């Protein structure tokens, strides 16, 4: 693999609670670095509102790169229980149809693994769940690829806990990792915990690398807004570089209690106003 395609791995943008400086920065980086693909591992919205999906469509659609998106737990209807139970992915699939383009990455494949569920037999439905059907679909896609393909599996939730402040508590995650180890995937990309990580998880079938991207939203945990740069070296090894918005003071960017409308106070120095921040103000996206 000699061309070493550059990939951007982004997660947890949370339109409805976005950080405009971070969005403008990523837009500029995509235009300047021209990645072969942008992989967004879920939580594109905050409450899955139509206005949030519209803002996500505008921003993602304007990126100068092919894009692949995964669904996150925040991307299912929050205030519409009928839609959540009977058609939970309708809004996400509409966005996917509008912005997702086929990735042309010679020798590399990005294969999604769904870790969300419309409901679960536990109180916190935000946590991960790899159902047997979701895992079977992912494995079938991997098994259909040409021999020698470098596989990146993209999911929203880390499949096991990764030592960050946020937790995934993903049901079926260990089983999924063990099956992915059999296929010797290059890495499992995820988000959800809002902090970047890069580690190797041992399974009964061998090791699996797990790579997490941070957030571009105001909902920080331990690190500033960030995304990951991924590239394969000449020998096929995967290199990861975390790109952080270091000049943003972490405490100043944190929202400790999410308001009902998921809209933070307007920052007059923010070039992209969060959705709903200033009534009547036109968003610059």
Please outline what is shown here.
With 285 residues, the protein is α/β, with parallel strands linked by helices.
Q: The CATH topology is what?
A: Purple Acid Phosphatase, chain A, domain 2
How many discrete domains? 1
Major sheet attributes: 5 strands, mixed
Order of the strands making up the biggest sheet: 3-2-1-9-10
Helix-strand pattern:
EHEHEHHEHEHEEEEEH
Mean pLDDT across the residues is 85
Fraction of helical residues = 10-25%
CATH architecture: 4-Layer Sandwich
Strand content: 15-25%
Rg, please? 18 Å
Number of DSSP E strands: 10
- Structural category is alpha/beta
CATH superfamily: Metallo-dependent phosphatases
Distance between the termini: 36 Å
CATH class: Alpha Beta
**Quaternary status of these chains?**
single chain
Tell me the overall shape. globular
Helix-strand layout with pairing:
Blueprint: E1 6-10, H1 20-33, E2 37-41, H2 50-62, E3 67-70, H3 81-86, H4 90-99, E4 108-112, H5 132-143, E5 150-154, H6 173-182, E6 187-190, E7 197-203, E8 206-212, E9 226-232, E10 238-244, H7 250-253
Parallel strand pairs: 1-2, 2-3, 4-5, 5-6, 6-8
Antiparallel strand pairs: 1-9, 7-8, 9-10
Structure description:
The model is unreliable at 248-285 (pLDDT under 50). The longest helix is centred in the N-terminal third of the chain and has 14 residues, at 20-33. Strand 1 (6-10), helix 1 and strand 2 form a beta-alpha-beta unit. It is globular and about 45 Å long. The protein is an alpha/beta fold and 285 residues long. Helices cover 24% and strands 20% of the residues. The chain starts with 5 loop residues before the first strand and ends in a 32-residue tail after the last helix. It has one domain: Purple Acid Phosphatase, chain A, domain 2, CATH 3.60.21.10. Helix 2 (50-62) packs parallel to helix 4 (90-99). Strands 3-2-1-9-10 form a 5-stranded mixed β-sheet, with helices on one face. Strands 4-5-6-8-7 form a 5-stranded mixed β-sheet.
């Amino acid at each position: 693999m000699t061309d070493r395609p550059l990939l951007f791995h982004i997660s947890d943008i949370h339109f409805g609670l976005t950080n405009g400086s971070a969005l403008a920065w990523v837009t500029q980086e995509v235009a300047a670095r021209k990645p072969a693909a942008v992989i967004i591992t879920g939580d594109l919205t905050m409450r899955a509102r139509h206005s949030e999906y519209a803002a996500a469509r505008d921003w993602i659609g304007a990126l100068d790169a092919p894009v692949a998106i995964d669904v996150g737990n925040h991307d299912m209807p929050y205030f519409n229980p009928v839609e959540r139970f009977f058609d939970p992915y309708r809004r996400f699939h509409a966005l996917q149809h509008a912005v997702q383009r086929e990735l042309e990455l010679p020798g590399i494949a990005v294969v999604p693994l769904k870790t969300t569920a419309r409901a679960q037999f536990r109180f916190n439905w935000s946590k991960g769940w790899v159902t047997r059907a979701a895992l079977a679909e992912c494995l079938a896609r991997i098994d259909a690829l040409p021999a020698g393909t470098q596989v990146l599996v993209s999911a929203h939730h880390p499949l096991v806990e990764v030592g960050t402040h946020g937790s995934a508590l993903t049901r079926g995650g260990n089983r999924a990792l063990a099956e992915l180890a059999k296929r010797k995937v290059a890495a499992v990309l995820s988000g959800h915990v809002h902090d970047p990580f890069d580690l190797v998880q041992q399974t009964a079938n061998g090791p699996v690398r797990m790579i997490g991207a941070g957030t571009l939203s105001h909902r920080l945990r331990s690190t500033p807004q960030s995304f990951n740069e991924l590239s394969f070296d000449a020998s096929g090894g995967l290199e990861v570089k975390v790109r952080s918005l270091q000049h943003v003071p972490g405490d100043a960017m944190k929202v400790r209690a999410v308001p009902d409308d998921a809209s933070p106070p307007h920052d007059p120095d923010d070039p992209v106003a969060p959705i709903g921040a200033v009534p009547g103000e036109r968003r610059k996206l």
